[in-house]
Amino acid sequence: MNLKNRDFISLMNFNNEELQFIMRLSEDIKNGTDVSTVLKNKNIGLLFGVASTRTRISFQVGVQQMGGHGEYYNAHDLQLIHKESLIDTGRVMERYIDGLVVRMYDMNNYGAGRIALNLLAENTNIPVINALDDKDHPCQALGDIFTMKEKLGNDYKKKKVVVTWGYAERQKSPGVPHSLMTAGSTLGMNMVIAYPKGFDLDEEYVEFSKKQVQSSGGKLEFSNDIMEASEGADVIYVKSWKSLKKSSDEDMIMRNNVRDKWCVSQKHFERANPEAIFMNCLPIIRGQQATADVIDGKQSVIYDQAENRLHIQKAILAAIYGYK
Fold first, then answer.
1. Residues 307, 285 contacting (CB under 8 angstroms)
2. CB neighbours (10 Å) of residue 178?
3. Burial class of residue 27 (count of CB atoms within 10 Å of its CB; 0-12, 13-18, 19+)
4. pLDDT in tens, 130-179
5. How confident is the model at residue 318 (pLDDT cuts 50, 70, 90)?
6. Model confidence at 2, in pLDDT bands (50, 70, 90)?
7. Per the CB 3.0–4.6 Å rule, which of 166, 170, 187, 225 could disulfide with 238?
8. How far apart are CA 124 and CA 126, in angstroms?
9. What does DSSP assign to residue 81?
10. Which contiguous run of DSSP H or E holds residue 61?
């Protein structure tokens, strides 16, 4: 499989075989496959306009473990803050570095982050990797599905995965549910997307995923009832996102009105299968998207998820920089 020099912005640009290759490579790397020289003498820039813990650290550590150097740039510390254009910034950066990991989004201006990533990709000759924009979080989603495969076994595609909206006081990107839905439908998984009315996902992603399951053999359903969706679940994955059709103020009114009903608790796991697991990409505030006993309970795999970000990031980098 040759993914060399590809941008990694949206999982809609990758087919089943390519996603499977990255996941197999991630498993191999976790099990000891040596990729310690893949990035030898390469410098990878991390351009972040939004705060990050897991994505930033896993990329920096991963690059170092692969023999390269990862350099973090806060967008507010660069001349971008003084209105230097993103194109000028990118064209200068490509003279210094060998790849760029970018996190940019603003949920008050949905789509602006994707425009920024596309501008960088179109105007530079180095790979651009999406570390979360307002539409996708491809690295997170593949790491999550890798975790599901680890926990559920090789027949993970047959298991019922519920990706549900949960209350949070912060208005977040829908990148995770978009990327999970995209990857899941491409891989042929069984997925239910649950959310309160008014928090529908981007129709572009919904239509793409509906078409994908027709050829992949997967299953995709939508629900406005979290309790109903939890019935027979093997995974309950909670993630908050901002309404794409409402203003920030309107969104806050809507989410506060449904706060109590959309907090994952033990009553949802009572509806799920006995061995069901709880997932969340973090950060999470106990009592908002989920109760503390769920987050800290035996069904929770959130820290395994976080660890697997390192392995999937290394697999993505290895694939892009020529490992076969």
1. no
2. 28
3. middle
4. 999 999 999 999 999 999 999 999 999 999 999 999 999 999 999 999 99
5. very high
6. confident
7. 166
8. 6
9. G
10. helix 54-65
Inter-residue contact 61 to 35 (CB < 8 Å): no
Instruction: Give tens-digit pLDDT for 246-279.
Output: 999 999 999 999 999 999 999 999 999 999 999 9
Instruction: Give the DSSP H or E segment for 227.
Output: helix 226-230
- Say what the alpha-carbon torsion angle 106, 278, 129, 189 is, to the nearest 10 degrees: -110
Do 11-136+308-320 and 138-305 share a fold? Answer: yes
- Rounded-to-10 torsion of CA 44, 46, 47, 53: 170
CA distances from 255 to 106, 165, 167, 225, 284 (A): 19, 10, 6, 15, 16
Q: Assess contact for 135 and 178: CB atoms under 8 A.
A: yes
Domain boundaries defined on the chain? 11-136+308-320, 138-305
Tokens 């950066």 found at: 93
Q: For domain 138-305, is the CATH number 3.40.50.1370?
A: yes
CA distances from 205 to 31, 79, 95, 215, 240 (A): 33, 34, 35, 16, 17
Question: What 8-state DSSP symbol labels residue 228?
Answer: H
**CATH of the structural domain 11-136+308-320, one choice from 3.40.50.1370, 3.40.50.720, 3.40.50.200, 1.10.10.10:** 3.40.50.1370
Residue 192 gets which letter from DSSP? E
Q: How many CB atoms lie within 10 A of CB 24?
A: 14
